[in-house]
Amino acid sequence: MKMFFKSLLLFIVTLCTLLPANAADYPKRTITVVNAWLPGGQVELAFRPVMDEMMKSLGATMVLSPNAGAGGLIGTNKALQAKPDGYTLLLTTEGSMVSLVGLRNVRFGLDDWVSIGSYATGPLSLCINASESRFKTLEEFIAYAKENKGKVSIGITGKLSINHIAAALLIEAYGLDVRLVPFDGALQVVGAVGSGHIDAGISEMLYNTSIKGIAMYSKERNPNFPDIPTFTEKGYPQVNWGNHFALYASSKIPKESVTVLREAMTKAVNSPTSLDTLQKLHFNTIFLSGDELDALMRDRVAQLNKLVEKGVIEPEKQ
């Protein structure tokens, strides 16, 4: 009988070492969050108050590791190449993830990732010069662009970027013939619009007083910029391309760890401390659960594929 119980105990111990760690065992050490964007940028700035609250729930330290470049690809690759144990996460945007999967030559797809949740969104908008533009409203801009085919210029932050996709949606919906002018970064777009070197730009930097938003890529108006109408309310709901700041993990990490992270994220984003801080920083807090974010990205890729099929935007060549 003693031998039986010893054998049974040995079996149980061996089985436990083979099974994934359960929720109570995770996390046991520091979690590295790979930031695919520049340190101190909007994605990181908005995440810091959320991360502070997540650490309280998790009972573990989280550290940010900046790995910017190539439209988010460098950081995304680094996070995916790490051991899928739940101790390396990815901080990026839903818009970047969709553009990488849908337009770039990458070695991963949406199935390689699992969404933990979103915590804020950027106010993506069609912008004009705040004081000297020849048009003041979206209607005036569209009318002028149609009367002057091929002459109106719109600034974007690089080819195949989130801004490029947003511009393609605008072009396809209104049947426009405009010139897209790629820049290295968001500040350059704002500078070109604000100085009058280009007619308009796609930007999230609406706090910059040299530019003015005339239409926003969202279903509802942004509470931080309530005077800017949306393309949806103008009768073009298809011109909607958000840029949710979000946290991701490899889809190969234990399911129990995903559950723990999602619960901590939900609690952190909705905490009074996070909401108050994000509001003071002028971020629009739109929380999407992991499942909601996964579904949104699949819809976005399908929408992007249609633009590619119509020839509105051309993907990176093989």
From TrEMBL:
Gene3D superfamilies reported for this sequence: Bordetella uptake gene, domain 1, Periplasmic binding protein-like II
UniProt keyword Nuclease, yes or no: no
One of the Pfam families matching this protein, by short name: TctC
Positions in coiled-coil regions: none
The keyword Signal is annotated on this UniProt entry: yes
Signal sequence annotation: 1-23
InterPro entries linked: BUG, Bug_dom1
UniProt keyword list: Receptor, Signal
CDD domains associated with the record: PBP2_Bug_TTT (cd07012)
Family, as annotated: Belongs to the UPF0065 (bug) family.
Protein name: Tripartite-type tricarboxylate transporter, receptor component TctC
